Amino acid sequence: MTRAWRIEYERALYHVLSRGNEQGDIFFDDEDRLTFLEVLGEMSERFEVDIFAYVLMGNHYHLLIRTNRANLSKSMQWFGATYTKRFNIKHYRTGHLFQGRFKNIIVQNDAYLNRLSYYIHRNPLRAKIVTRLIDYRWSSYPSYGYGKAHPKWLTTDLILSQFNEKDRHKAYREAVQKYSKEEKQIWEDFRHGMILGTKKFVEVIRTRYLPDKPHQEIPHQRQIKKSIDPEVILKKAAKALKCNVEIFRKSSRISVRDKDNRDLLIYLIWELGLLTNQEIGDLFGLTYSSVSRRVSILKIKIKEDKSFIKHWHWLKLQIKM
Predict the structure, then answer these.
(1) I need a surface site. Which of 8, 158, 163, 200 has the fewest CB within 10 A?
(2) Which one-letter DSSP state was computed for residue 300?
(3) Torsion over CA: 232, 223, 10, 54 (sign)
(4) CB-facing half-sphere around the CA of 100: CA atoms within 13 A
């Protein structure tokens, strides 16, 4: 069973969504929707979560939030379990209400918040439930677009402050209306199925949170690992070692020092899981079996040679992306 990858840190921004089990409804009536919002407010206060936007659909919901503590999983697990419990008690039912784990997209910064809020608020239009968003009661849009009263836990200032106009609510309405023609653009920066941001932001996430060996049951980790360019890694590592990779590729006779550096680079690419042994061999002008031998030798040295271990860890720090 695949697992979700939760990247958590203080003041992280997320687009969170979850669907009903087997596509079933998660609201049977308006009282359920009010209960949902009540639990949302409790979660916001209890776990110090800022809620910027929401929409409640028939069988799913969307949230735009910021965790002031590194506690996304705890917050959303409590939220899902609490709402499910109250829903089940009311409707005399048992079992799961939501379909597996909630999904989350980590958002780079405030610059993406406005467009994400437009996307979230336009859900009822895309579903053809209403023809005017103001007619849909179960979202935060009326508060943004018309200044309607909203729960105290809903934070609208951050998004509205990005408008310079005197009437910010009107400016927001107009922006949402125009967004219908731009809706696909925001997903141009959607990367690896879980990150909304620039390529540079992906590198930050990779550096800080991606383990050396991706978990086999977490596909997002494997996707991000595979996106690393081996040539970029080689260039950084070769610079740190003060060696020339082209010499390894073109010359069959190299010095002992160059050979040691080459083997280090081979093991680096192998250990990162970026290429197969055959592909590594093609990169260095070696056979598949030669790569296998070099890797086996390096495995032993990394276990037994303390000075080599220290050198190996130093090299990994130099090329950390």
Answers:
(1) 200
(2) H
(3) positive
(4) 8
Distance CA 314, CA 203 (A): 20
Identify the bridge partners of residue 64 per DSSP, sorted by sequence position.
15, 53
Residue at 183: amino acid letter: E
At residue 245, the 3 state secondary structure works out as helix
For 16, the token pair is 């969170």
Pair 3, 217: CB distance under 8 Å: yes
Encode 35-61: b = buried (16+ Cβ within 10 Å), e = exposed: bbbebbeebbeebebbbbbbbbbebbb
Residue 101 near residue 4 (C-beta atoms within 8 A): yes
The domain of 236 spans 228-318
Tens digit of pLDDT for each residue in 27-42?
999 999 999 999 999 9
Cα–Cα nearest to 64, from 7, 107, 96: 107
Query: Which CATH number covers residue 46?
Result: 3.30.70.1290
Number of structural domains the chain divides into: 2
pLDDT tens readout for residues 148-204: 999 999 999 999 999 998 999 999 999 999 887 777 677 777 876 778 888 888 878
Query: Which two three-digit tokens encode residue 204?
Result: 């930050």
User: In the numeric block, which tokens belong to residue 26?
Assistant: 């998660």
Task: Find the DSSP H helices in the chain.
Answer: 30-47, 72-90, 113-121, 123-126, 141-146, 157-160, 168-178, 199-209, 219-226, 230-241, 245-250, 256-272, 277-284, 288-304, 306-318
- Position 105 in a domain: yes
| Cα 60 versus chain centre, distance | 20
* Kind of pairing between the strands at 195-196 and 190-191: antiparallel
